[in-house]
Amino acid sequence: MCRHLAYLGPPVTLAQLLLDPPYSLFRQSWAPRDMRGGGTINADGFGVGWYPHGGAEPVRYRRAQPIWSDPTIAELAGVTSSGAVLAAVRSATVGMAVLDNAAAPFAEGRWLFSHNGVVRGWPDAVVPLAADLPIRDLLTLDAATDSALLWALVRHRLRAGADPGDAVAEVVAAVAEAAPGSRLNVLLTDGRTVAATALGHALSLRETPDAVLLASEPHDDDPGWRPVPDGHLVIATAGRARLRPLGWVSSTPG
Ligand code: GLN
User: Fold this and answer.
1) CA spacing 20 to 30 A to 167: which of 17, 178, 233, 243?
2) Which residues are the signal sequence here (predicted)?
3) What is the pTM assigned to this prediction?
4) What residue owns the CA closest to ligand 1's atom 3?
5) What is the ipTM of this complex?
6) How far is residue 174's CA from residue 33's CA, in Å, rounded to a whole number?
7) What's the pLDDT tens digit per position in 155-173?
8) Is 117 in the pocket of ligand 1 (CB under 6 A)?
9) Per the structure, how many domains does the chain have?
10) What residues make up the domain containing 176?
């Protein structure tokens, strides 16, 4: 299962966030400490999206190769800083395409999105949900993957003006019901707030007075990390995180 993280707080370099910590996302690409539901390494791509200072819309860099084999990310990460970042390393689910476009974060306007997990019974299980989307959205999916479809479902609600926490909780609930046993850890940010879910996979949270970090696994031994209980939604801004039960969890992820 992929690994992902979201950060809001004072500007840091991408290197400080993604490369330098002892159990960084970079390291998690070949030595994750907590893989579940198949897969051992996260070598099928990576992506990072960040909000430039003063810019409303994020910039992205995504590749369909292991993060350790890309020379550009190390150079870029050393000289790029931001106070809002969403990044992921990918372990493609069996049968799903390995392409730049299949790597998170997915994006539109000011939004960035990532999914860590799998939709069980893909794609048949979610055909009824996909049927609610305009055909244009289906024809322009980033990739033919479960994560890209989840993003299309969330994006559809955001376009209609939904609250980001509601959009995420609603889609996760609908997919969990249609595809029992799915693992649905998602991250959604606009650079000011992060909405995150923990369902079927680990998610950890570290709050400091002026920053918040959500990650699939703690990237250092700081005692401030705490696990987000399974079946919860997190709404976080820099320095403040609120948790609430998703409330409808009925099936054990497979
Ligand atoms: N199923 C998604 C994909 O193939 C996410 C994979 C993961 O979390 N390992 O991209």
Assistant:
1) 17
2) none
3) 0.94
4) 92
5) 0.95
6) 30
7) 999 999 999 999 999 999 9
8) yes
9) 1
10) 3-245
